[in-house]
Amino acid sequence: MKVSSQNQAVLLLAVNGLFLLASALSGTFLNVYLWKSRPDFRMIAWFTVAQQLAVGLSFWLAGKWVKEHNKMNALRLGIAVSGLFYLLVLGLGTTSVSYLWPLGLVLGIATGLFWLAYNIVYFEITDAGNRDFFTGWMGLLGSLTGMTAPWLAGWLISSMRRERGYHLIFILSLSIYGAAAILSFFLKKRKNEGEYDWKRPWNELHRVGSHWRLAAASLLFQGLREGVFSFLIGLLVYIAAKEESKLGQFTLITSAVSLVSYWAAGKWFKPKFRSAGMFCGSILLVAVITPLLWKVSYGTLLLMGIGTALFIPLYMLPMISTSFDLMGESAESAENRVELVVLRELSLMTGRLLGMFVFISVLSISGTPRIITLLMLILGAAPLGSWWMLRRLLPSRQQGDSA
User: Fold this and answer.
1) Mean pLDDT over all residues of the chain?
2) Domains of the chain
3) Closest by alpha carbon to 32, among 292, 253, 229, 231?
4) What is the spatial distance between Cα 215 and Cα 387, in angstroms, rounded to a whole number?
5) Where exactly are the transmembrane stretches of this chain (predicted)?
6) What percent of the chain clears pLDDT 70, i.e. is strictly above it?
């Protein structure tokens, strides 16, 4: 990779780090803030559904802008709308629970715009040879921000009266989003390439022999787990511990473990180990949930969180790297990278929505702790489906040794 491209990659990682920091600072406690106003799992689930619908649609609709116009403006707008979301929450206060659908749509649009542009630029300034390395650094930054920001936020909220702590962390997030937006102006404008093909994601899935059929199916399984786990774990920790500082402590510990595991994976997890590593990681991600079958407490949730942080790089690195490798497997794929990023996100969105609808449907019948735990175990096994679908596209150790 050229030095200029490497500098741009480092700058992009810095923008990503600030975005993750702002999101971790407030996002960790956003669902708790809503829960305290109305303790209802299904309400939070519908809020997440609204976000995912907006993420998928913004990826698809904004794809034309990103491919044919200035993708950096899409990235900056995503950061700005993220700030707008927290302005709205600050203005609405505890009445935010009455506006969950519009708020969820705003947050989803912000997320979609940022990650669509980020993923495209990330693909353009990395290649198959260094993608695992930079993906590892992405995970490292995510762990570092996830380690410090929620702990600080939890301490502030617990030490302040009523809503003051929440208001403070929302304002801090606004400031960090502003810093990320300013830093993003140092990223070079990327050239535009061709016209946006609205039907390309669907046509790719219907094309005989397309590797994206397997990749999309594996991403759907990834989404099945992510959709529910993204909000449920934090809520369960808060309900079990009954204070925000404990949730901050939980994220501090698990993110510290994740920081080490992503660093190690980025250093030693080579492409030839992807298949075996992903299978082992998927099995272990299920195994760490089993302690909850006996008791759901802060201790068992922490045990699950540490195990997840330790093993998830084995699963996530092949998932991320393989998708981006497919975008660069031919000149035609590289030219249609925007459409393929959209396909990737729509596949994840479909899985997340399916997982959410299963969760909502089951809780409409019974919402006992036992049912929730069993549902977590079932959805938590979805990574095995990802591995099963993706295994034929993953380099094996034998292939790596013979190369």
Assistant:
1) 86
2) 3-186+209-394 (1.20.1250.20)
3) 231
4) 10
5) 43-62, 74-93, 99-121, 133-153, 165-187, 276-294, 300-320, 341-365, 371-390
6) 93
